[in-house]
Structures are given as C-alpha cells and as structure tokens.
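Reagents: none. Just compute today. ABC transporter ATP-binding protein.
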Amino acid sequence: MQDLASHTSPHPLTAALQGQLHAGENVVATLEVDLDRQGRFATGLMALTSSRLLAYEPAAGQWAAFVLAPGQSLKLSDHGGLAFMELFDAAGRLARWRFTLACNPQAVKFADLFAREQQRLAGQPVQEAEEEPEDFDFGESSAPPSTWVLLRLWRFARPYQWQLLLGFALMMGATGATLVSPYLTMPLMDKVLIPFRNGQAIDPGLVMWLLGGLLGAALVSWAMGWAKTYLLSLVSERIAADLRTATFEHLLGLSLEYFGNKRTGDLMSRIGSETDRISVFLSLHALDFITDVLMLAMTAVILFSIHPGLALATLVPLPFIAWLIHLVRDKLRTGFEKIDRVWGEITNVLADTIPGIRVVKAFAQEKREATRFREANVKNLQVNDRLNKTWSLFTPTVGLLTEMGLLVVWGVGIWLIAHQSITVGTLTAFLAYIGRFYGRLDSMSRIVSVTQKAAAGAKRIFDILDHVSNVPDPVNPQPFENVKGAISMQGLNFRYGSRSVVRNLNLDIRPGEMVGLVGHSGSGKSTLVNLICRFYDVTEGSIRVDGVDLRRIRVADYRRHIGLVLQEPFLFFGTIAENIAYGKPDATRDEIVAAARAAHAHEFILRLPHGYDSLVGERGQGLSGGERQRISIARALLIDPAILILDEATSAVDTETEKEIQRALDNLVKGRTTIAIAHRLSTLRKADRLVVMDRGEIVELGPHDELIALQGHYWRLWEAQARRVDADADEDGGLMVVAPNPNAHTVNA
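Predicted 3D structure written out:
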C-alpha cells in the first residue's frame, strides 16, 4: 500500500488527525487542500484510512468522517482554474471539496488509492500501483552532484586538445624545474658550507655552477609557468564560452513545457555564474590539482631515492588527511548545490522585481519585495554559514597534521644524523622537499572545495543539456513549402500533467478561412492555439497542415509560416526597425516601412525622435499599448505568414485604439488562414465560423447568426456580455445606448 503522506511535508494538522483515529485504524494517504467550501484560501486536510475518509473543514473548524462502504466513488473534475473532489454512494453525492490545481497531482493519487480501497472492500484482487514520478518533473536529477560529472566537460575541451597537451607539457616542465633547487642545496651544504666551517677553502667555480643552476631553474620555472597559465587561461575561457553557447542554444530548443516550471533568475544563474565558476576551475584550480599530483609524485620519488626511511616518516599524515577529505567531500558536494539553489532564489527575486517595478510601485509593495529579498539573502547566509563551519574546521586540521608530520621528520632526521646515517645537507634538502610536499598536500585539500563547487555547477548545466525537448524534430523531416494553410484536427486530446485540457476535439479549417475561438476562461482556447503552433505536442490524435502531420515537419520550418499577435506584445530592447524585422532580419528598409504602413504604425513611428531608428526600452517601455500592438502586427505582416494566430489582440486597448488595430488586422488577415481568440466581438465579426469551447470540447460551431439562433452556449455568452455592457451604460448615467444588434456586442472569451 502506497502511503501518499510520504510524498508531502509534515502537515500542522497531523497531530489533530492522530486524535481522530480509532484504535487499530491506519492512515493510508493524506491530501492537503487549500480552499474552504466558499472558495476562500484556507488550509484543510483529507485523510484516507483503512476504514474511513476523514476531512477537516477549515471554515467550520471541525472534522467530518465518512465510513468506507462498497459502491462509493471519489470523482475529480476541474473548471476555471479550480479542482473539485466529490464523494458519491448509491444514493448520491455525500460531500464535495474544492482546491486549486496546485493540489491536483496529489489529488489524482489520493483518488487512485481510494479506488483501490474500494476494490479491497469488494473482495476484488488489487494490483499495487508503481511509484509514479511527480508531475512536471522535467528530467532533472535530484541526486547530489558527483565529482565525475566534471569529466563530461571533455566534450567541450576536445576541440582544444592540442593546446591542452602543450599546456600539460609546459606544466610538467615548470614542475620539474621547481624541484631542482632543493636538490642543489645538498652539494651547497655538504661540499661548500660545512667544509668551509671546518677550515677548507671555498671553490668559486663550484659555487658559481650551483648558483647558476638555481638561477636557471628559477627562470625556466617562471617562463614555463607563465606560458602554461596564459595558454590554459585562454583555452578555459573558450571552453566556458562554448559551454554557455551550447547551453543557451539547447535551452532555446526546449518546449514551453520546460519553461513553465522554471524561474528566469535560476536559468540566468546557471548560464552565467555557473559557467564562470567552471571557467575559473578549469583555468586555475584544475591545473593546480594536476600540478599538485605531479609535484607529490615526483617529490615522493626523490624523497625515497634520498632516504627511504625518512620518506616513510613523511607519509605518516597522509591516511588521516585522506580520511578527512573523504569525510568533508560529501558535505561540501551537497552544501554547494544548496548554495546554488538558494542563490538562484536571490536571482529570481531580482528577475521578478526589476521588470515588474512599475507594478511594485503602483501597489506600494517596496517593503514586501525588500522582505522577499532579505529572506532569500538570510537563507543564503544560513546555508553558507553551515558550509563554512565544516570548511573552517577542515583546513586548519590539515595544516595541523602536516605540521605534526614535519615534527616527525625532524625527530627522525636528528636521530639519523646522530647515528651518522645521513648528512646535514641531506636533511636540509629533505626538509626543503618536505615543505613542497606538504605545501602541495595542503593545496590539494583546499582544491576539494572548488572542485565540489565546479561539480555542483556542472551538474546544473548538464541538467539543462540532458533534457530532451517534448516537441522534438523528426529524424527524417518532411519538406514543408508552398503552404496553403488547411488545418485538420482529428481526435485531439491533450493533458497538462495530470489535468485533461482538450478532449476528443475534431475540427477542419479551410485555407484562407477565419475562425474565431470563443468560450469561458479555462475552456481550452489558448491551449488549442498552443497545440496548433506546436508549442506542445498532442497527447492523442493529430494536427495536420495541408495534409502533413505536424510531428513530421521540422519545428523551425513550420513556425516560419506562422504569424503570432499576442494580447501583450513583447518588444525587445533595440530600434523600432529591428523589432519589426525580428522575424526577417535581412528585410530591407522599404519592406519594413511597407509592413508598418499596412499595420497603421507608420504615422506614429515618424513622430518619434529618430523615426524607425528610435530605441525601444526594455519590453517596449515608452510606447503605448496600442503602439506596441501595431508594431507586433507589422512584425507578423513582414514575414507574410500562411497561418495567422490572433490571441486577444485588441482586448487591452481603448475603443479608438481598437479601431486603428482593427484596420491593421484587416490588412493582416487577407488571404491567410486565421485563428482568433477574442474578448470583443469587433475582432470576430468578420469570422467565417465561430468555435465555441467548453471544458476542452467543441460544443458549438458555425457563423454568428446561426449560433445566436440556436440559443445555446454562444447565445448565453453573448447575452451575458450584452447585459454587462448595458449595466456599464446605466452606471455611466445612461449616456450609452446598446442596440440589440449582434455586431454591436462583445463576446466573453
């Protein structure tokens, strides 16, 4: 039996639920609901036990209990953004609960478990359901990042393999040169300084040769180190740039479904800061790590060649340091991923607030947004503090162990000198090598931190790169040219997560026909348009354009023939001309002006300070809603699409501006297959047919006059809109008179 409560965080009503249980009664599943009976936001709880269905009603502040009996059913439905769960028995409905669609995925599982309990009560065999992934899990792994993920960066490093090989050779040369000077200290001590203290003369030639060797080694190490650092820094920057480009290009190829569950700030953080962190790791720390390994290996060989006994004494701290690194690495790995996620929350607050600053100020919510930022910042501090607590203990402990190892070497070395097993020069050289050995060991331990940071960043990058688009291009795409615009939808079904949005829809649209989509909010109009644009793929059935299934056409080839005019037009930062030519960057100035004239935008563009070269602020700031809309119409006109989608193109403007936009739309729809969603009938009055939708289904289809005569769904929408217009006229003192002319009313879409 699956316990749904294990999928949810502990609920504050859990303790109260325990008090409602009978002796021996076990909880099978729980479901948190977020609305009361009146539809107000409130926290309630439903619990399915082995014998009853318990429900806490927040408005009444009390529990209701329903004894499980054969023949009961739990039904789910949704409408207008709300979900409903109803309990039935043979006599009728026993209870009803409502909640937002955020609770719907868990509600589906709750209902499934209820159905399985009913099977048990009826004595039927029950097949245990397999664990299902959460809805909207877009393929990103929740496992902690592994250091091995860094090896996947080789895919981006391969084009620079010869530069990397040269850098590795330079690094080996520089590392070898640094090991020369300690080796030359032995003859300096044993053949120059100690004999001089015993009364022997200094050999100038030997001294010059030894000092020259020290100088030459230093110069070679410097030159090779500089060349290595410069070369590999260039390579690492290019690897990071390629990684950024590949991630962004892959991101652009993903479907809208992926972006529906992602925050802008988080994606910006991944492509920006994570790739920078990887670049720093590759250019500095990865090389340092390899250098440290080489230095340790070469130093160990030299130490054992000088004196095996002293070399073994040197290795005493190594097992303890290795154990510490193993202990700390896992904590750092998960800690840095948490830091990345919390930092993404900070970026999300900025990405939400700055573009919406006008709304923030209009509603005087500066303090609220500052509080959001402060809370995210406090979380960031808390996560960093926990990680720094671990790291601050680790680093000094490694230093202490290396100091203790140095004391062991001193003690053993003095004992060997006392027994005349080694010379003072040998011990001096040994100590010099030991300093380098322990220094590199300490450096390697510090690299654990940056390695885990890079691994966490690489995981978040590869989470994007590993995601496969839900709207893939076909392996063998079919050519798509000379588009006429005939659209056929057969047996169309679409589910968004666990929610059915479009059901068994059949519709044929003729080339050049204008079809209007009408219905209540949430009836599936926008979803149908998204399916036609192939922003999503259908769950069942097919959409064909000119007889070709959309899934057989390359996405870019298909969308090149679609013009889209949205309710809220989006303009990019740049000039007016650049925005009009966005879909056709190679358009000439004459083509841009012609499109603007057809969209009735030419006159107001000329009134701008620099005409078509006037800069548009971010998201079109500085232009009115109607001006932005006409630019978006010009943008659609310029690409000369065979299929035109109008999504509430005139709903957000005043009547005068609507007339201007309508004249532009009249030019736009000529000779094109047009699908329009509209709030106002003025946009749909010239439509050849109206498609009336309700709960994802087509309930009526036909011209305006025929649908009015039917007095069905469309007629009720039209009458409701007419009454609302009449009421508005009465509130204005009766100055507006609405005649019973169908073309004078608007339809609520």
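The mean pLDDT is 76.
Action item: order primers for follow-up constructs.
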